[in-house]
Amino acid sequence: KMTELYRFFNTLEDFRFCDAAVPVVYDSVQYPPAPGGIARDFLKRQVQEDAITITVAAELAPFQSYALKNPFELLKVTVFDLEEEVYRFRGELANVDFDAQAGVAMLRCSTLGRALVGDIPNRRLDRHCNWELFDADCALNREDHKVTIPRGEMTFSGNGLFLTHANFAINPNPGNANWWTGGFIQCGPEANYIDDHPSGDTVRLLFPFLKLSDPFFEVFPGCDKAHATCIGKFDNEPNFGGYHKILLRNPVLQGF
User: What is the share, in percent, of the chain residues with pLDDT greater than 90?
Assistant: First the structure.
């Protein structure tokens, strides 16, 4: 059986795996076996695109986070044949599907040709910001807004949806009562969406954590992309990516 090396990377992250039973070193870089295994289907070659589906364990980082939120930046994907020393595939991660019963994530990957014939993302003419919080256009540093909480100090509700800790009540900007609403909380490779910040020291998650593999939680605030939030919560108006002065009324049909 040929050995293949898998790499998933962007400017923020770089993950490498191999489909062998033991770590593989190539070009002075180690590719560890993917926990739970990694495999791909046959490369589909078409006129306008090449595509493959890679199957991994559902909890494998960073793919488990795709069930909770859109990534900050698309992952590029390479599949390298170690025996023949050629790339079998180069492209981008286009979509992630989860099979809860089988406990796997199916990574749909496509080449640049697919992107060229697909929908081109547009910047919306919207009163709300077009950027994602902490992405390159937003320009805020996520580390400056991170709060770290030891796992042993966190209190969990019976259903695992509510987390309580005194640090949740420490609001850097008292003018924004729901500081953590819309943010996310991470424990090792597992991330979770903060659905609400109902009280000072308690947040509500979208769903319970499946595994707690790290001794610390890292918590990040949320952004509703409103102009007032950009100013009042993050003091980041120069990087606001919306058009907040668009009229809410049609002056022709509704008057001024």
Answer: 35
